[in-house]
Amino acid sequence: MNVNMVGYILLGSPGAGKGTIGQFLQETYGIDHFSSGDLLRSEVSEQTLIGKEIAATIDRGEQVPDEMITQLVLNRIEQLVAENKSFILDGFPQTLPQAERLNHFAKFEIKYIYVKVAPETALERMIHRITCSVCTAIFSKMSQAEEACAKCNGTLVVRKSDQPETASRRLVQFQQTTKHVIKEIKKDFNPIIIDGNQAIEAIRENLLRSLNTASFKEKLHDSSL
Ligand SMILES: [Zn+2]
User: Fold this and answer.
1) 126 CA from centroid of ligand 1 (Å)
2) Residue 131 Cα, ligand 1 centroid: separation in angstroms?
3) How far apart are CA 103 and CA 122, in angstroms?
4) Which residue of 67, 130, 177, 222 pairs with 156 in a disulfide if CB–CB is 3.0 to 4.6 A?
């Protein structure tokens, strides 16, 4: 077990604000932030063997197999373990087998962060979201009137997955699958739970406070041994 390496795992429905929180943690801790979706997209755009398979699957209107996603994520984590780098992961695990694989695989500390949000808030956020096509930074249509990304000047786009129809389908899917995974994780792993219905500034503040309290409690626990 590598005690200096931490994997922050962000859980929550689409639109809960995981991406924004991930960006914030990345800036705060200066560590890698990636999602299973990023990994899929980069395989597709680099046209690797697995990327071509993924593109064909999506073109057929099918879901990318669980096992393929698991493999991509674990490969990436393996690289990070080799470099002893902490990271933030978003969008994984989505199923119980994935959660078990991650757990068996982890040679580092895992901190689960569950961002809990009302479905109406999530939907509202998703359909107002614009994403930089270059650096994947996320903005709200309300706050970002510009056409270009404030960070890298890249073009801002509405991702297919954020269009109203797809967004509500993803929310239903979350209720049917990932929500059960989160229930199990809640039982076994004592996640930090954050109220995602609040404004982003309040979410950030609560998150930092919870992370600090968690590490303080661990220190207390350690010193009592
Ligand atoms: Zn950008």
Assistant:
1) 18
2) 8
3) 28
4) 130
Which of 37-46, 81-90, 145-154 bottoms out in mean pLDDT, i.e. has the lowest?
A: 145-154
Ligand 1 centroid to 7 CA: how many Å?
25
Please determine, for residue 177, whether its predicted confidence score (pLDDT) is greater than 50: yes
Q: How far is the CA of 102 from the centre of ligand 1 (A)?
A: 30
pLDDT in tens, 80-124: 999 999 999 998 998 888 888 898 887 889 999 999 999 999 999
Q: From ligand 1's centre to the CA of 137, what distance in Å?
A: 5
pTM value is 0.82
Neighbour-count burial for 15-52, b at 16+ CB within 10 Å, e otherwise: bbbbbbbbbbbbeeeebbbbbbbbbbeebbeeeeebbe
19 CA to centre of ligand 1 in angstroms: 14
DSSP string, 133-171: TTT--EEETTT--SSB-TTT-PBEE--GGGSHHHHHHHH
99 CA from centroid of ligand 1 (Å): 31
Distance from Cα 216 to the centre of ligand 1, integer Å = 35
**Dihedral of alpha carbons 118, 124, 126, 132, sign:** negative
Q: Is 73 exposed, middle or buried (0-12, 13-18, 19+ CB in 10 A)?
A: buried
Own/partner pairs, 134-143, CB within 8 angstroms, 24+ separation: 136/38, 137/23, 138/19, 138/20, 138/23
Pairing between β-strand 138-140 and β-strand 129-132 as defined by DSSP bridges = antiparallel
User: What's phi and psi for 194, nearest 5 deg?
Assistant: -120, 135
